[in-house]
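dumping this here before i forget
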Amino acid sequence: MSFPPGFLEELRERVSLVETVGRKVRLLRRGREHTGLCPFHNEKTPSFTVSDDKGFYHCFGCGAHGDAISFVMGTDGLSFPEAVEKLAAEAGMEVPRGSPEQAARQERARDLYALLEAACAWFAQQLRLPEGKAALDYLRGRGIDDAAIARHRLGFAPDRRGALQSALSRDGFSVEAAREAGLIKQSDDGRDYEYFRGRVIFPIADRRGRIIGFGGRAMGDQQPKYLNSPETPVFHKGRVLYNHAHALAASRETGEIVVAEGYMDVIALDGAGIRHTVAPLGTALTEEQIAALWRMAPEPVLCFDGDAAGQRAAARAAERVMPILQPGLSLRFATLPPGEDPDSLVRAGGAEAMHPVLSAARPLSDVVWQLELDRQAPNTPERRAALRKRLMEAAGRVGDPVVRDFYVNEFRDRLTKLFSADSSGNRGSRFQPPNSGWGRGGRRASDGRAADRQPGPIQDLSASARAALLKIQRGRAQQALLATLINHPDTIADVAERVALLRFPDSRLDGLRSAILNLAAAADVLDAPLFRAQLDRAGFGAAVDAILCPEVYSLAPGARAGTDGMRVRQGLMHLLDHLQGPVLLEEVGVRMSRIHDQVSDAELDSILGVVISEQAGGGAAGDE
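structure:
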C-alpha cells in the first residue's frame, strides 16, 4: 500500500517523536534532546538519543536510526502501512485510500475484528457459567490458574446450536458476517450451526493483539481433537503464530524467542516466566512464520519432543528454512527428554526444568548433520560417498551464497574428521565423548603436552553451565549403555564386572542397572524379548520404555535391536570407556577451569598427565 508523500510528511510533523518513543522508553531531557536505554538492544548505559527538532532517533550502541514510523514498526512489530495507520489514528488524521476496493476490504476487516472480539468475550463468559464447569475444571487440572485464563482469554463453546449466533445477533452482527469470520457454518440442508461446539476455546490474536480466529479443544471424543478457525479475510493459518503479541513484547527484553508445538505448551511456558514463546497452529512452520520469528530474534529456538514425531518435525523445519537462511539468521533446536513436552516438564519442575533444555539447543548445522548421519551408518566406501552427496545437496539448498559456502566448508570439515576417525579403527559407533575443553578430544602430543589446547564449546561456558551440560551428557551415555544391554542381553556376562562398578546419579537408572545385572545372573537363557518381559514384571517397564527411544539410538546406533554382534560390542566398549574414563577427565577439566588463571600451563599439563597415566593404568573412576 502506498501513501502520498505529502500525507507522510504531514504525519511526521503532527506526531511527537518524543511522545511516541516515551511510551516505550523512559527518556531524560539533555538540552534540546532526550536520552534513554535503547529498546532495540540490551544496554545498561543510555546510548539512545531522540530529537524532536530533527525528527529522528539514533542509538550510538547498535546503530538503530529512524523516525516515528520506523520506531513503531520496530517496537510493535508492525508493517509500514500498519504503523502509518496507527500513528494517523493517534494524530486524528484520515489515511488516504488507494482505491474503492481497498477501502472496502479495510472496512470489512474492521467489522470482522469487532465481531471476533465480541465472540471472544462471549466464549470467556461461557467458561464461568455452569455449562462451562467441565472445561474450567479441565484447564485447572492442567495447571492453568485464573491469571493465565484471563491473560490468554480462554473460553468455552457450549454444544448448543444457535447459542453463539443469537449472542452475536444481539450485538448487531449479521449471520453473513459470522459466516465470513468462520464462526458459523452451513450444513448441506441449508441450516446454520456453530463451527466450535463443546470445546475449550483458545483465542488467536495477530501481532497487534487483535482477535483474528480461534482454536478449540474437544472435551469429549469429538474429532478432530484440536480445531482451528477456517481461512478468512483476516485469518491465514500459515502466517499466524499463537501468542505473537505477548511474545513480541517479551522478546524485546530477552532478545530471544521460543517456538513450542501447541497452545498448552505456550501457556505453560508463559506461566513459568518464559513469556517469549509462540507456536504454529498445528502445522509445520511456514516461510512466513519463520520471517515473523526472525523479526523478533535472529535465532529462534524450536522446541521438539524427544520422540520420532519430534525428529520428523525437526527435519521438516530444517528443510523449510535452509533455502531462506541469511547471514546472522538461523534456527536452533532444543530436544526434550523422552516422554516429556514443555507443559509436562514445567508442571513437574517449573522454569528451572526447562532452562537447561533451551540452553542446550543445537544449531541448525548440527541438526542437519545428525539427520543425514542417522539415515545410514557410513561404514563402507559407498555409504560414505552417499553421506557426502546428501550433505553437499543439503548445503546446496541454502539460497544465500555466503551462508552456502560456510555450510559446504563446515560439512567438508566434519566429513574429514569423521572419516579420519573411522580409518584409525573407530568404526562401529558414532558416539563421541564430549569435548573435555582440554584440547580437542583431550588428546596429547608425543612430548606430553596438551595438543591443540584451544577453547572448545564447553570451555566457553561458565563452570556451572559446563557441569550441568556434563551431567546431561553422562545421563545420555548411561541410557545408551542400558539400552544396549536390554536389547542384547547376551553381552551382559562379558561386561558385568565393569557395569557393576558404575554408579548412576539418577536413582531410577541406577536401579535399572542393578536389576539388569541381577536378572542376568539368575537367568539360564538370555533371550531379549524374555529379558524385557522380566524387567517389566520387576517394575521397570516405564524406565525401559523411556530409554529405548530414537534419541538414545541416534546417540549409540549399536544399541538398537538387530544390530550385528561385532558392532554391538564395539559400541558397548566405547560407552564403558567413556563412562569409566573420559568422565573423570571432564570433571577435572570443569574443576580446573575455576583456577586456570592461577595455574601455569606447565603445572596444568603435569596435573593432567597424572590423571591420564592413572586412566591408562586401568584405574576405573565410577560415575558419581
